[in-house]
Write a structure and sequence with these properties.
Elements: H1 24-39, H2 46-63, H3 67-72, H4 82-93, H5 113-129, E1 132-134, H6 145-164, H7 169-201, H8 206-224, E2 258-260
Antiparallel strand pairs: 1-2
Helix pairs in contact: 1-2, 1-6, 1-8, 6-7, 7-8
Length: 264
């Protein structure tokens, strides 16, 4: 796998003294940025980038009323070097696509190959609709969790920019509709199952902490958009449809991934 994240969208800027309080879209983008970095395949400099982004994400979580989730996920940003993070990543995900906690959306709830192909095409279609594509040199699938998180970061930043420019309601509605559609049809469908399975495989350490944060943040995102939480999908094993053995129903609670293809 090779799922690093993009440098084309940036949410890790510190707030200047006297600057206005960030909008909710900005705060959401900052959390998505951290999670995208957290689940990207380790590359040189990834550990430092993650540690740098954590204070921004922690403040954003507090601003969103998710301070408890931030406290529970503090281990996600424990300072470790790239080599240690690479070892933790290997232990969590292995060399090939893990059937215990695959980081790819099309591995969840897709019993047949044509369903998986359709999911991959649909995800890529969302990216293209906003002028994005996988960056040159990235050899990975568009449904990797880091890419889908980065796409949500991009949409949040687009929303924030539209609000800043006081653009027409129609353009803002398109962006928000895309956020809702992508969460309800893709990331929000499988992120819970992925997070729960990852916590079972990596009981402690940065990836377990990141999985806890992903679960809590996704629950808040779906609740804010009134998107119903569906039962966790099964992980495809190449045979037949079956329920996921860890399903629980509704729950209360960097460089070069996506690149701009056109000016949007």
């Amino acid at each position: 796998m090779n799922a690093p994240t993009s440098t084309t969208t940036r949410s890790d800027r510190r707030r200047r003294p006297g600057a206005p309080a960030p909008r909710r879209a900005t705060l959401r983008a900052q959390v998505y940025r951290f999670l995208a970095l957290a689940f990207a395949e380790p590359v040189p400099g990834a550990a430092a980038a993650l540690a740098c982004q954590w204070p921004v994400a922690e403040a954003a979580l507090a601003g969103l009323g998710l301070g408890a989730a931030a406290a529970a996920a503090a281990d996600a940003a424990v300072p470790v070097d790239d080599a240690a993070r690479a070892r933790a990543h290997l232990e969590a995900f292995g060399h090939a696509i893990s059937k215990e906690c695959p980081p790819y959306g099309a591995e969840y709830g897709q019993a047949h190959i044509f369903e998986k192909s359709q999911t991959l095409a649909d995800v890529a279609g969302f990216y293209r609709a906003f002028g994005l594509e996988l960056a040159a040199g990235v050899r990975d699938r568009p449904d990797h969790v880091a890419f889908e998180l980065e796409f949500m970061e991009f949409l949040c930043l687009k929303e924030d920019l539209a609000l800043l420019r006081e653009e027409e309601a129609g353009r803002l509605a398109i962006i928000r509709d895309a956020e809702r559609a992508f969460l309800s049809g893709h990331l929000g469908l499988w992120a819970f199952a992925f997070a729960r399975r990852l916590q079972r495989r990596a009981v402690t350490g940065p990836f377990a902490a990141s999985a806890r944060l992903l679960e809590a943040f996704m629950a808040a995102e779906l609740a804010a958009m009134a998107i119903a939480r569906r039962p966790d999908p099964f992980v495809n094993d190449g045979t037949a449809d079956r329920p996921d053995d860890c399903a629980c129903g509704a729950c209360p609670v960097a460089a070069g991934g996506l690149a701009a293809a056109t000016e949007v």
